[in-house]
Amino acid sequence: MPKKTKLIRKPKTKAAAAPAVTPQRITGPRTLQTVSGFKDRVGADRKWWGYFAEVAFEVMEKYNFFLMHPSSVEYTTLYTRSFGKDHPMVDGNLLTVTDPRGEHVSLRPSFDVSYLRAYYLLHKQDFENGVPIENWYTIGSVYGEHNDPREQMQMFLGVIGNDHPVVDAECAVAAYRYIQALGFKQIQVQVNSIGGKQSQQMYKTELNSFYKDRKRQICERCVPYMSKHPLQLLACERHECKQLRLEAPQSVDWFTDEDKQHFMRVLEYLDELEVPYTLSPELVPPLDEYMHKTLFSIKVTLDNGTVMELARGGRFDGLPVADQKDFPAMKMTVFLDQCIKAVRQGNMPIPQERLAQVFLAQLGDEAKKKCLGLREELHQAGIRTVEHFGKDSLKDQLEQAMKLGVKYTCVLGQKEIIDKTIMIRDMDGGIQEEIPFTKLVPELKKRLNIV
């Protein structure tokens, strides 16, 4: 009888444990402070940030741009694959950390790549039926070691999936109207085109030849740009380079027929929209070589003569972010930190129609309760109302009302509650009038010309 063989089971192999993370000493200042290059946007400028967002919502919706919020953090490979490791946006600029999974992630240095990534993930099932079109805008921060400060607030608007020249004009107009709605008066729109990839290559070759024979005439700062970045020579504001720029070849002379037609139609659309603009051959992209065709810059002149650039943009067609797909794309970036500086230097007030109209002042707990319901009633009637329930002193509340610039302050105390009345104080003339509580809303609407 054959012997039974005993099966020997091999012990199950356990999955390899994740390598232990060696704890590192965490460094940082001993005192409580913000990180270098970052800041809290509070204090006197706080009201402007809310105002920027409010105006953006109104203007962008009118121009068919819809709010979206791309992720603040991306895989670092998104940028290295799109631009290459040596690109100025990547090399020494990305604020990068390694997450617990061992992946390198970076704070976004710009919105455009995040827009393209979000667009691709949203529509990757739809490309067989054509290229969808998205009109998006957002308000948020971008981060970079090369930035000053390292965190910058921007409003970014972009159209992805549409290469028609009317899109270039529409984006520029939307940014122009937004800056106009913020209260700026002297606005200049500069426009230029450097053509598509083929036109750019021919133009750069011609520029290299032109500046090679005039190397001794350009400033020392521009010499390193001659071979790889000749377009930067056109943007230099030093006297010797500005004079030489007048003799330099013009980009339009090296356009393909397609690029020439595109630019001419952009200008025609701007004319139709009655947007004042100037042709500016010195307007070139920074070292971001992914920019093509149309370029815009929007500047304002303050009452003191200071000129500040508040927005810039253009086409960034052909930037591959996934499967080497390159989508037609147009963008405009409004630099909100610059807008804050401009309104501060120009001593600009927020337009009166944006401010609160009525301040509710209260004395005592019963008046406070009554004002809670009254505030809701005034809001529903379209009266912009503000209060400070945290203060009990009438003097403090009237001082707050003066700072806010309201037209009227409504005072409710114990006596008024008993008499079922309320006091209306004209903040300009100081005249006070006591009226029945039930007539407050129609009386305020009459005084504020609210239909």
Structural description of this entry:
The chain has 451 residues and is an alpha+beta fold. The protein has two domains: 43-196 and 256-345, BirA Bifunctional Protein, domain 2; 355-447, Rossmann fold (3-Layer(aba) Sandwich). The chain contains 14 helices and 16 strands. It has helices at 46-62, 76-83, 112-123, 165-181, 197-212, 225-228, 232-235, 239-245, 257-272, 336-345, 365-380, 394-404, 414-419, 440-447; strands at residues 66-67, 73-75, 96-98, 104-107, 134-143, 151-160, 187-193, 277-279, 292-301, 307-315, 329-335, 358-362, 385-387, 408-412, 421-426, 432-436. Strand 3 and strand 4 (104-107) form a beta hairpin. Helix 1 (46-62) runs antiparallel to helix 4 (165-181) and helix 4 packs parallel to helix 9. The mean pLDDT is 86.
Number of domains: 2
* Count of separate DSSP helical elements: 14
Q: What is the helical fraction, as a range of percent?
A: 25-40%
Order of helices and strands: HEEHEEHEEHEHHHHHEEEEHEHEHEHEEH
- CATH topology annotation of the largest domain: BirA Bifunctional Protein, domain 2
CATH architecture identity of the largest domain: 2-Layer Sandwich
Mean pLDDT: 86
Give me the secondary-structure category: alpha+beta
Regions with little confidence, pLDDT below 50 for 5+ residues:
none
What is the 3D shape? Answer: elongated
Strand fraction: 15-25%
What is the CATH level 1 assignment of the largest domain? Alpha Beta
Main sheet strand line-up: 1-5-6-11-10-9-7-8
Cα separation of the termini = 108 Å
Largest sheet descriptor: 8 strands, mixed
Please tally the β strands and state the result.
16
CATH homologous superfamily descriptor of the largest domain: Bira Bifunctional Protein, Domain 2
Q: Which value, in Å, is the CA radius of gyration?
A: 30 Å
